[in-house]
Design brief:
The chain is built from 23 helices and 18 strands. With 630 residues, it is of the alpha/beta class.
């Protein structure tokens, strides 16, 4: 199916540093901007129609500055030719740009974020030739760009930035290094006053991108991001500076997009109906017809069912609901001793439930994971206090040192790291939450650290109720995807009424005599499906839910240690997860069943449920692996 926007209408432009824009150049630039934005909307609406998400507002916003810089480079300006964007969620722009510059087949835009397409939710250089720089975790580009500038003297190195990414501490470090060494870097920043959590001017009073960079020593040029003459002038002026300079493009998010202009909702993928209305208004009748057909076809695709499982729920949302339930039972004075710190992901990690009902127990801390974890630890360092912190599991790797120092300071922190594993992670490899065991990084004789990974929403609630009033560092994990209720053999909820969670105790979901599977989180229901299918054939494989990941249940070890085999199945990193240590625990206790483990072993390749299959963790792959033991 061909891409329904005619990108061949794009006019190749060549601008020079010496002149302003002619009337013809301004007209062509304006038409190009409209065309490229239309293509971005169409690309992201395709993904929306297929139910695989995406991001529209960010890539849509920065089109003017991208086209102007490309035209200046093509016109001979000394600009390094690699494309650096510190905001990976703006990947749709890079894919549309690749198609326009004939480095990507335009038809591939119809498969944005789709499995096997290479068009990941955050761009990865190993997947597509049109991508120069893999990005996705905010704050990880500016320092890299400094090194590129040192390696390529004589040319300006451009980094496209955002006001949200500029909150990261890495950017401050990179700015100081750039100024101290007079590096020829140019940061072109979309300052749209929007992040996922809302508007920085409301939740982070005093934060000003331009003033911050001026304080570091950057030469700063501010402009109206939708006045293309101003944008061109600011960019050309920055390129004439021999040293670090920044162009701050002030605009509302998604200018011209009906109903959503200026809202944080546009950080995410544009709603299907809004996208259709936009394209109709822009005269793209063919695109509307194609997209409506895709949406109709998508609605007929059945979802997968798993034996032994029930209704699905989002554990990552349940975390906040469970905390709010506990706060509701506390007095106003007691609630003063509990405080949650958000890193611009409150809706994704469940903290919205706390903010909405108990705003005095909540701080919107912006895109600042390191500082926010330490703030939670500092609050929780006062006797009787509890600091709560939540972000994605991938970003745990950004706060490991902070975790270590907080432990040394005997802080009391309940941390929730969602989006663990790979399931439904079309944002791809940079957002995989694989190394969660890194949180338990202290010496053996030190204080205990609890790592907990509930299997469904009912168990998440039970875990939070049990560990909320413990002291020390404890970490709760959840997935991006919804997980189904685990059912007992009678078809009732395993973690229903009467269940109480006990830390350190492994739970037998199904008894067995042929051998045992040990699993947790999003892989537990998949393993249960496999176990049920083997039981239908008369083969009883046992299944254990290891909710407390880093504690040894001696009773269970004795139970399974003398069985024919033990198989650990997880979606965390096969090199750092449970599987690499569980076999050692068995051997240390003198047990030697046949042993193996399965986990994530490959970089991602887009998609949702397909990410699990891509790792060889689907039900069929698990059955095949188990068959080697039976």
């Amino acid at each position: 199916m061909s891409f329904p926007i005619d990108i061949d209408k794009f006019v190749n432009l060549n601008f020079t540093l010496g002149d302003g824009l002619s009337n013809q150049e301004r007209d062509d630039l304006t038409k190009n901007i409209g065309l490229m934005r239309d293509a971005i909307v169409a690309t992201t609406v395709v993904a929306r129609a297929k139910g695989i998400g995406g991001h529209t507002g960010g890539p849509y916003d920065i089109v003017p500055e991208v086209i102007i810089i490309d035209a200046l480079r093509d016109g001979g300006a000394p600009i390094h030719d690699e494309f650096f964007d510190e905001a990976g969620h703006r990947s749709a722009l890079q894919y549309v740009r690749g198609a326009i510059r004939e480095k990507l087949d335009p038809e591939k835009l119809m498969h944005y974020r789709e499995y096997g397409s290479g068009l990941a939710g955050h761009p990865e250089a190993e997947l597509l030739d049109c991508i120069d720089f893999s990005t996705g975790r905010l704050g990880h580009a500016a320092g890299h760009v400094n090194g590129v500038a040192m390696a390529n003297p004589g040319k300006a190195v451009i980094m496209f930035g955002s006001d949200g990414a500029q909150m990261e501490g890495n950017d401050a470090e990179a700015a100081r290094l750039a100024v101290a060494n007079n590096l020829n870097v140019k940061w072109v920043i979309d300052d749209n006053n929007v992040t996922i959590a809302g508007h920085p001017e409301n939740y982070m009073s005093g934060f000003d991108v331009g003033k911050t960079l001026e304080g570091h020593g950057f030469k700063v040029f501010s402009c109206d991001g939708e006045n293309y003459t101003e944008v061109h002038g600011a960019i050309t002026s920055s390129l004439k500076v021999n040293g670090p300079a920044a162009v701050i493009c002030k605009r509302v998010m998604g200018p011209g997009i009906p109903d959503l202009e200026g809202t944080s909702k546009l950080h995410d993928v544009i709603p299907f109906d809004t996208g259709i209305d936009y394209l109709k208004e822009r005269g793209h009748t063919k695109a509307v017809e194609v997209l409506e057909k895709i949406a109709a076809e998508q609605s007929t695709i059945p979802s997968a069912d798993f034996k032994g499982s029930g209704e699905k729920g989002a554990c990552r949302k349940q975390f906040g609901v469970s905390v709010a339930n506990i706060l509701r039972g506390m007095s106003a004075e007691e609630r003063k001793r509990v405080h949650a710190f958000d890193s611009d992901l409150e809706g994704s990690v469940g903290l919205t439930s706390i903010r909405e009902e108990f705003p005095n127990c909540f701080t919107s801390g912006g895109v600042q994971e390191r500082g926010n974890y330490l703030a939670a630890a500092g609050f929780g360092s006062k006797e009787g206090n509890l600091g709560i912190f939540a972000t994605f599991s991938a970003f745990m790797e950004m706060v490991i040192s902070e975790i270590t120092m907080s432990r040394l300071n005997e802080a009391n922190v309940l941390a929730h790291f969602s989006h663990a594993g790979v399931d439904h992670m079309s944002d791809n490899t940079c957002h995989f939450g694989l190394n969660n065991f890194f949180a338990d990084n202290y010496v053996e004789e030190g204080s205990n650290t609890g790592l907990y990974f509930p299997a469904d929403v009912s168990q998440m609630d039970a875990v939070i109720r049990r560990i909320f009033h413990d002291h020390g560092l404890r970490f709760v994990f959840s997935n991006r995807s919804k997980t189904p209720l685990i059912l007992n053999e009678d078809g009732a909820a395993f973690y229903g009424g009467g269940y109480e969670f006990t830390p350190g105790v492994d739970e037998i979901i199904r008894e067995g005599d042929a051998g045992w599977i040990v699993s947790y989180g999003d892989m537990l229901h998949r393993c249960l499906h496999v176990v049920e299918e083997f039981r239908e054939k008369g083969i009883k494989v046992g299944l254990i839910n290891k909710v407390t990941l880093n504690a040894v249940d001696e009773e269970i070890m004795e139970r399974i240690g003398t069985s024919p085999f033990v198989m650990v199945i997880e979606s965390l990193n096969s090199r750092t997860g449970l599987g690499v240590r569980f076999g050692t625990w068995l051997l240390e206790r003198g047990f030697s069943p046949r042993y193996d483990h399965m986990g994530t072993t490959r970089p991602g390749n887009c998609g949702q449920e397909e990410q699990i299959l891509h790792q060889g963790l689907g039900a069929d792959a698990v059955k095949e692996k188990l068959s080697t033991f039976l």
